[in-house]
Amino acid sequence: xxxxxxxADYLLAIKLRHKQLQPTTAQHSxxxxxxxxxxxxxxxxxxxxxxxxxxxxxxxxISTHIFGFVNKKLSEKVTFSFPHFSRTDMDxxxxxxxxxxxxxxxxxxEVLVNFDLMxxxxxxxxxxxxxxxxxxxxxxxxxxxxxxxxxxxxxxxLDSLVDKTLDIFGKITxx
Length: 175
Description:
The protein has one domain: Rossmann fold. It contains 5 helices and 6 strands; from the N terminus they run αβαββαβαββα. By secondary structure, it is an alpha/beta fold.
């Protein structure tokens, strides 16, 4: 990363340390959306998250919305099978600014799952800005921003994490 990117990441980390979890006041019965955030650099990670989304849609009357982050500058020609943002879409202080991201943030979610295994500060920031009744993350750097944290052991592979998250999601929706 360049010094500008390091500075932006540092400034974002400072902001995140002072944020607190703010659950939405939306009612359970009015929300039928699941938001999923991920670091989209790995094709295996993308496939695992898409599998998770398909399992949710197959087993629950909930629509899933995946949003990815790529930690490099991308041209407009680069596409994914889901909306995403990259370093190109961030201002000097590390705050993302992208029309697709704005649409993702405007939608209320029953559950927001942060599947970012890289622990990018910008994804934690997006998670904090998202309206969700429950926020779930995998061993996040900022656990105070989430009400459900899955302990990710080094030996756990991505498929095990997806299975564990599916199990927890079932308990949340049945509660």
